[in-house]
UniProtKB/TrEMBL annotation, chains A, B:
<protein>
    <recommendedName>
        <fullName>prephenate dehydrogenase</fullName>
        <ecNumber>1.3.1.12</ecNumber>
    </recommendedName>
</protein>
<dbReference type="GO" id="GO:0070403">
    <property type="term" value="F:NAD+ binding"/>
</dbReference>
<keyword id="KW-0057">Aromatic amino acid biosynthesis</keyword>
<dbReference type="GO" id="GO:0008977">
    <property type="term" value="F:prephenate dehydrogenase (NAD+) activity"/>
</dbReference>
<dbReference type="InterPro" id="IPR008927">
    <property type="entry name" value="6-PGluconate_DH-like_C_sf"/>
</dbReference>
<dbReference type="InterPro" id="IPR046826">
    <property type="entry name" value="PDH_N"/>
</dbReference>
<feature type="domain" description="Prephenate/arogenate dehydrogenase">
    <location>
        <begin position="6"/>
        <end position="295"/>
    </location>
</feature>
<comment type="pathway">
    <text>Amino-acid biosynthesis; L-tyrosine biosynthesis; (4-hydroxyphenyl)pyruvate from prephenate (NAD(+) route): step 1/1.</text>
</comment>
<dbReference type="InterPro" id="IPR036291">
    <property type="entry name" value="NAD(P)-bd_dom_sf"/>
</dbReference>
<keyword id="KW-0028">Amino-acid biosynthesis</keyword>
<dbReference type="InterPro" id="IPR003099">
    <property type="entry name" value="Prephen_DH"/>
</dbReference>
<comment type="similarity">
    <text>Belongs to the prephenate/arogenate dehydrogenase family.</text>
</comment>
<dbReference type="GO" id="GO:0006571">
    <property type="term" value="P:tyrosine biosynthetic process"/>
</dbReference>
<keyword id="KW-0560">Oxidoreductase</keyword>
<keyword id="KW-0827">Tyrosine biosynthesis</keyword>
<dbReference type="InterPro" id="IPR050812">
    <property type="entry name" value="Preph/Arog_dehydrog"/>
</dbReference>
<keyword id="KW-0520">NAD</keyword>
């Protein structure tokens, strides 16, 4: 494939950045990949496994002369990082991020991006429950959407180039309004995560059912929630602190509907339950047809012999 | 392996019964497997794919001379079925069921089981989102728990034989008190399913986010919920109608905790969120260590090329 950037700087070397490193290499999309992370430990691991062409100790060094800078750190850390790298950005470079929330990141980062540098916020809708520099793999973005939310004044060429990079990593790219992104993600990601965390918390708290029972008998549905609730606590704290309004709106709708179903259970209204449970199947079919999930039973989990 | 029953009658030929048929055959556990289902269509499919040794048109015929009778139909259908087969059960035979709720099934079935027939209610904690006679497979019960809830007066020999059957199909077997079963399952299965159905319903209902957006951007967490919410509506209606009390108790705890987290989001209490999200990871580790789920990212879902 074509090289799209001479030098890419990855700020943060966790799941997303390490997956990008693998995918850019596979596609020959970057001339040089320079990486950095907050801790010496992560930088050491990155060096050991040869994740980047070069691992440097500071973000300022990493962005020097980079054509593309990717902020791949928790949402709550974006502002300080933007302030730190702002003065070192090369004129004409593009800055992007991969944060799961967009309004807060735009507000935090944009003020620190100097004139002549393009800021194109982004979000790959792909992830796993694992984190850190060893968790990345080149296929993570394959057939998944990456949403870019550039403002109306951004030049076309840098947007097209960044789009080509994500496509080169296997992603489908869409652009969207910042606020709409945060609402859509509150529905498809943030609220589901909060609910999963809550369900696992409830199970953990119960006195009358032990943790060991919960663990043994988890295959009946619960274990799916525990995967989601095993995601990185820092990342998710930052998501909820930074997408308050939309999450609270969707949570309000959620509790409203939950109360209606709860009432149907209490009053024994089987018809309402049946109709509700029937209606929700169509969305699943849509997701499988759109290639966004597999139809193999239980996601095709490997069956582990005792 | 050893043949444990000369003749097994499967009443209902859906996911669970068809998986049992495959698993019993693999293990040579039954001399003859006789099956029946409500609809001519299902019986025809079962004949076509050779699911049983014999498919008969009525439950009365199926249970005649059977040493083990398995009720593998929705919980709400158990009472009528028990009334229908009661007079035809062979003295000394064992009747079991696979219903997801136990108190209601015991109350519905026990009165119709004649003296001299052993009734041992059961529940395999294994399933998928698919249903019907074609959805079964021999490995479904592998390394999963089956819970038996015999009452204190049941003879040991029939319990041991039924235990051996489930073990021969790959399951781990435990016995438990009827009420405790229903509470444990309310936590590990029933409430998670209701929550998943609700979340998918909310997403489907929203005006400001289209169904097509929900589908496209589902990989960020939501799609996991849609798999659970794709399960059979009849089965789940019956579960909630028949495990009211325990489900409502756990739902009460759930909304309580959800409100606490909602409040933490509203007030920006990052510490509380972080602590909560950290605590829930331990249960996931326990489940993976106990062999009840895989640690492969995203359950090891196949990555589908566009
Ligand atoms: N995981 C997902 O499913 C997913 C999906 C889409 C988008 N995202 C977004 O992608 C971003 C990165 O997530 P990830 O999953 O790649 O996380 P990760 O695996 O936990 O890695 C996070 C990286 O950020 C660094 N970091 C953490 N706190 C920092 C701070 N205060 N200042 C500077 N660097 C800091 C970490 O450095 P050390 O290793 O040295 O601690 C690490 O290299 C987040 O904004 C997240 O919202 C995540
Ligand atoms: N699916 C799971 O994950 C799971 C796990 C553990 C336990 N269970 C329990 O196992 C039982 C069967 O579930 P399944 O998943 O095997 O269901 P399924 O695939 O939907 O099959 C249900 C079977 O029951 C028959 N049936 C439905 N309504 C009936 C009625 N009113 N009278 C007589 N027969 C009727 C159906 O006959 P037709 O095909 O002719 O309609 C079909 O053969 C349920 O009690 C469920 O709670 C399910």
């Amino acid at each position: 494939m074509t090289q799209l950037y001479d030098r890419v700087a990855l700020i943060g070397l966790g799941l997303i950045a390490s997956s990008m490193a693998h995918a850019m290499r596979r596609g020959g999309l970057a001339g040089e990949i320079v990486g950095t992370a907050r801790s010496a430990e992560t930088r050491e691991i990155a060096r050991e496994i040869g994740l980047c062409d070069r691992v440097v100790d500071t973000a300022a060094e990493a962005v020097a002369d980079a054509d593309l800078v990717v902020l791949a750190i928790p949402v709550g850390a974006m502002e300080d990082m933007a302030r730190e790298i702002g003065p070192h950005l090369k004129p004409g470079a593009t800055v992007t991020d991969v944060g799961s929330v967009k309004r807060a990141v735009v507000d935090a980062v944009a003020p620190h991006v100097p004139e002549g540098v393009h800021f194109i916020p982004g979000h790959p809708l792909a992830g796993t429950e694992h984190s850190g520099p060893r968790s990345g793999f080149a296929e993570l973005f394959e057939n998944r959407f990456t949403i870019l939310v550039p403002d109306g004044n951004t030049a076309m060429e840098p947007i097209e180039r960044l789009t080509a990079l994500w496509q080169g990593m296997g992603a489908l790219v869409e652009t969207m309004d910042v606020e709409h992104h945060d609402l859509v993600l509150a529905v498809t990601s943030h609220t589901p995560h909060l609910i999963a965390y809550t369900m696992v918390g409830v199970a953990d708290d119960l006195r009358r059912v032990t943790d060991s029972e919960v663990i043994k008998y988890s295959a009946a549905g619960f274990r799916d929630f525990t995967r989601i609730a095993a995601s990185d606590p820092t990342m998710w704290r930052d998501v909820f602190l930074n997408n308050k309004e939309a999450t609270l709106e969707i949570l309000g709708r959620f509790t409203e509907e939950l109360f209606a179903l709860q009432r149907a259970i209490r009053t024994g209204d089987g018809e309402q339950l049946f109709d509700y449970f029937t209606r929700t199947r169509a969305i699943r079919r849509g997701i499988v047809e759109a290639g966004q999930d597999t139809d193999v039973p239980n996601f095709g989990r490997p069956v582990k012999k005792p």
